[in-house]
Amino acid sequence: MSENRTVQIARIIEKRQPLAIEVEEVGKNLQALSSALHGLEQHRSQLLSQADDVETRGRLQEIDLVTIQDEITTELAALSKLKTRFSRETLTIGVIGRAGQGKSRLLQSLSGLSTDEIPSGDRSHCTGVRSTIHHNPGVETYGEVWFHSERSFLNEVISPYYEKLSLGSRPFALDEFAQNPLPDMPKQFAGQAEPGAMYEHLRKYHTNFNKYKHLLKKASPQRISKQQIREYVAQDTPDGQRVYFNYLAVQEAKIVCGFPNTDVGQIALIDMPGLGDTGLGDAERLMSILGQDVDIVLFVRMPRPPRDFWADVDVKLYDTARSSLVDLPIHLWSFMVLNQTKLNSSIGDNSIYCEELINTHKSSHINVVKFITASCADEEEANQRILNQVLEYLMQNITDLDKQYASACQDRLNRLHTTIALELEKSKKALGHGVQRDSWFPAFIKLFNKLWSDLTVGLEGLLRDLRWQRDAQDTDFKDQVSAALQACREDTGIPSLDAIEVRRDSEGSYNIAYNKYLHEIRAYLSQHFLSLDNGLKRSLENIKSQVVDILAEQGRLRALTDSNGTNFLYSMESLMPEDLDRLKLGFQILSTFELSYRGLIQHRIRRHLDRLTPDETPLQLSKSPSADEILVSLQTLHAEAIYECEAALEELLCEPSQAAYAIVEEFVDRILRAEGVKDDWQIFLEEIRSEVWATEFEKLGENSKLRREWMQSVEHALSANQNDLINFLN
């Protein structure tokens, strides 16, 4: 039995993990869909501001994407809860109840912990922090504490009081909260008990700030010993002294211990602070915890003489829990524990009052899986009559509960998918069918033929000019060569006589100094030629600009992009559909073509620098060298190297012109002469006709650019709204 239950619980948890991954993926896809719809909504707003046609405006106004975005936000939150539920490594039992009902006593009995770790007592609200108690047999009991950060403390703890009590601007820094006095209570709340109690609760944070402020800057989680747990999760000492304030800085705590009932498997208990305090956000936090962190909830209620009944606060607590998870009815995952006291207790035997509450629960609409009457303070009763029944129910029903919960979420996603599909169908038809092809196509053919003729004449003319100039020296490159040679002559890097003498003494030899100078001067000389890159790039960019000018003017493509030169070519390539690969290739070839010093010239220069290499130099020092000899040798070798480099570069001055002619001819072959490329141009220009010939097609009442961009947004949203992308129950 023991092993079977432990194994069963482990198997349930293991089966949940893959579904958690599926839910996470659907969440990402839903966020992508939300982004696509956001882009479509922005486009719709833009069209509404531009559309003159009454019918078009009407169709656009009928598209409701705002409501859908609200639904997506709701579903993302639901998926987050579902993912958290299925990602947990435990089955979790939440224990809730008003203060003084025996909740903490029950947790002590189930976990084996004492009042040192789980506060309990006759006074109200001993527990100050939500704690999760994990069963882990064989470990020494310890705790982990997560503290608020400055931001979460101000936003989640303090700000709600300022808003609820109308106290004015909330503090934006800890010092601002601590050093300034609290604003006075507004007169509108004078004499009202609940706002007054809330204000006192805020005052507790303010008055005791110096006692816990250091914790707001501590890293989380912080591991604490068993003996330290109470001072972080409780409001008072075991004897009732309210001297603990650490809990005011704590977000949550985790306690790890071995439960007395060792066969419970991978379970955890969640201890919530007793409800009914005036701490703001308690109900909201309870709903959040129950909605995503709890598999079964135990309501704890202690009936008291002389008579007891289901009070409004009981119904309110039940309704709060029921609201936490709308996809799974609370009566399927909750138990009511009626804390039965013995004759020798302070209130005597309350069995009759427990029976009375069971008999009257229907009239208060409090429905649960089962009412369990047991003593929360009796460890054996708590484990046998409460925990065992709850775990047996979990093992038998949790898979069906998970399925029901997940199916409810999936059903809503399916309905959302259908709703979005309907809105996108309306979006597809929002701009109507446009002008019929018969109306504009004859005009387009005439305009296209003229553009084709102008573009062909322009590019062929440029190519003819480049052919005539391909053996001519390139001016830009020639100027850069002259500047580089001048720099070589003026900035030699050759040392002075004094520097040579110092170098000789540091190296201990003229020969060693000479050889090192050869390497250094060669490196110094060669760096001046790196600037030739600038001339080559400038020369090529000038050629590309000439091509672009023809494309922009004779080809009428200026309306498509404000870019120039190479960037213009990149822009045009990106605008062309993938299926027009012949046309795209031409623009890609020209846009990516480069002339570089390293690729074209460097290897031809380096061979003339060999004389400045120690093993290759023709000028070796004499047997009795001197600084003068080294200086003269370096100057001679440097001058000879420059001379030979200059002669080599003279032969290369026409290379840029030849390269320019070759790449432009290749470009013209690709975009004008290749088989079928004229058809590609026609297909491309037909799609963007209203941009290329704005004036001509404006007369026909058509705006193809707006239509194309709108339809692209619609198609993007349609692609993101595929049913399989938001379905985790395939």
How would you sum up this structure, described in words?
By secondary structure, the chain is of the alpha/beta class. The protein folds into 3 domains: 1-87 and 395-434 and 702-730, no CATH class; 90-377, Rossmann fold (3-Layer(aba) Sandwich), CATH 3.40.50.300; 437-701. It contains 28 helices and 9 strands. The protein has helices at 2-50, 54-61, 66-87, 103-111, 150-164, 174-179, 193-207, 209-212, 229-233, 282-293, 312-323, 351-360, 379-428, 437-469, 475-490, 497-507, 510-528, 532-553, 565-575, 581-592, 597-600, 602-606, 627-650, 655-673, 677-687, 689-692, 694-698, 704-720, and strands at 91-96, 131-135, 142-147, 222-225, 250-257, 267-271, 296-301, 334-339, 370-374. The chain has a 9-stranded mixed beta sheet. The protein is elongated. The two termini are 34 Å apart.
Briefly characterize the structure.
This protein has 28 helices and nine strands.
Offer a few descriptive terms:
3 domains; 59% helix; 730 residues; Rossmann fold; P-loop_NTPase; alpha/beta
